[in-house]
Every structure is written in structure tokens, then in C-alpha cells.
Amino acid sequence: MRILIIHGPNLNLLDKRDRSIYGEESLEQINRLIENKAIELGMEVEIFQSNHEGQIVDKIQEIMKSGYAGLIINPAGFTHYSIVIRDAIEILGIPVIEVHLSNIYGREDFRKESVIAPVCTGQISGLGSISYLVAMDALKLLNK
């Protein structure tokens, strides 16, 4: 079972951002947790991070031809306005789970709406790095 994990903009700077919101872990530490979870679940995982909307869309389109069983995406700031990421996800035909480290519904008003969520299988937010791990468990169960 192959899955893709996409980290959106500024997640490469987690260790520089507000730790009370984003936690203590760097993106590299989160990626190691993801890789260890993949081994535990018998998954093959590819991890991709970009600060550029078009690169994220290109990566989503690539997986349509690559035999992936699911996508986990943290669109970060693109969550609230990226119709092009939404449109790319909408045509995938595989389970997609949107994740967020923070609880976007407990933050500023502009962060409370996701244009991505309606085209995803589900959304997990507010659990820090555990959000990714729970999403991986969910993909495993969805692909039984």
C-alpha cells in the first residue's frame, strides 16, 4: 500500500514558528514519526513539502498515474483559499485526508473555513503530529 503525504507552505519552518500553536517538533521529526508509522502499518510512504501551490497541484496530479492508495495533505495556509488544490483533489478517486497540527476551528476566524475539506474523505486537526499518524491508520482501514 503506497500513500503520499503532502506538507504545505511554511511547514518546513515548524521549529521557528509559534510552538504553542504548532508544537515542539520540526518537520524532520514529524517525517521520522510518519516513516516509523509506515513501517508499523506495512505502508510505503512518499513525503513531499512545498511552499508553492503549483508544485502541490503537480504532485497531486502525478499520483493519479502512480498507483497510490491514499493521500494525506496538510495544505497549511492554502486550506482557506486554494481552489486549484481543491480541484486537483476532487478528481483523484482515492481516499484523501486533510490534516492540521493545530485546531483550525479554535483559531482566527479566517482559519476556520477549509475549501479543501468538502472534497476530502475526512479531516483531522488539533492533534499535533499525531494528526498524521491517525490519518495513516484511517487510510489503512479505508483500504482493507
TrEMBL record:
InterPro entries assigned to the protein according to its UniProt record, in alphabetical order: DHquinase_II, DHquinase_II_sf
Active site positions: Y22 (proton acceptor), H100 (proton donor)
Site (Transition state stabilizer) location in chain: R17
Enzyme Commission number(s): 4.2.1.10
Binding site for substrate: N74, H80, D87, L101, S102, R111
GO molecular-function term, one example from the UniProt record: 3-dehydroquinate dehydratase activity
Pathway in which the depicted protein is active: Metabolic intermediate biosynthesis; chorismate biosynthesis; chorismate from D-erythrose 4-phosphate and phosphoenolpyruvate: step 3/7
Catalytically driven reaction(s): 3-dehydroquinate = 3-dehydroshikimate + H2O
Enzyme class: lyase
CDD domains the UniProt entry points to: DHQase_II (cd00466)
Keyword match Amino-acid biosynthesis: yes
Keywords: Amino-acid biosynthesis, Aromatic amino acid biosynthesis, Lyase
A matching Pfam family: DHquinase_II
Protein family: Belongs to the type-II 3-dehydroquinase family.
Main function: Catalyzes a trans-dehydration via an enolate intermediate.
Self-association state and partner proteins as the record states: Homododecamer.
Protein name: 3-dehydroquinate dehydratase
